[in-house]
Batch of 2 targets.
Target 1
Amino acid sequence: KDIIYIEAQKHYVNLFLISGECVTVKTGFSELLQSVQEKSKEFITTHRSYAVNIEKVVRIGRTECVLSDSSVIPVSRSFYKEVNEPFFSSLMTASSMCNGRFACEKYSTD
């Protein structure tokens, strides 16, 4: 829940946290992502080098998504559908928590 997104860089993985910190770990991206996804189903891959916490996505477009900390993360064509579906599921959940109104205006799409 503290991780906003994960970024792979060569043999290291950067974990970007809600607190603004960046924790760097020497491990493979897929191994770390698998470990994180076992604990939390909120993480989805947006690009071969990025995974995001779907609960932190504020806006999604064809080529990028914007997170709650204003980070802009690339979305590749091959992962767009995998990102878009959970985002809208998250949007519907937020809508139901707002009594069916889209008053939770933090969500939008391009």
Note: The first helix runs from residue 29 to 39.
Target 2
Amino acid sequence: VVALVPGCGRPAGSREGCGMASEVYLQLRTAWRGRLLVNGTYHDKAREFRVMKLGWTEERERCLAWQYGHGWRCFEVAELGEVTLGGEAPDIDLERAGKPPVCVQVVDEE
């Protein structure tokens, strides 16, 4: 299942080069909108996280996430594997979490 990527990280008014969202990206979008827990692998290590921003940087799908037990993480969506969605993600104390890194230049519509 694929869907058209809204905006797709291109300059305003340009749709040239826009592709289709990957299956993992669509899963992450569902998790982001539903504030769901995500489990998966990244660089062959197990990860448990909540999607905080989703979008594109230089036309690559990117995800800013809160990885439980580790803090802010920036994921290249293409490098995430074995992604499954769980129940509602635990709350995050954003005041104590500190400033997140900037890793998503064009944010998808939540």
Note: The two ends are 19 Å apart (CA to CA).
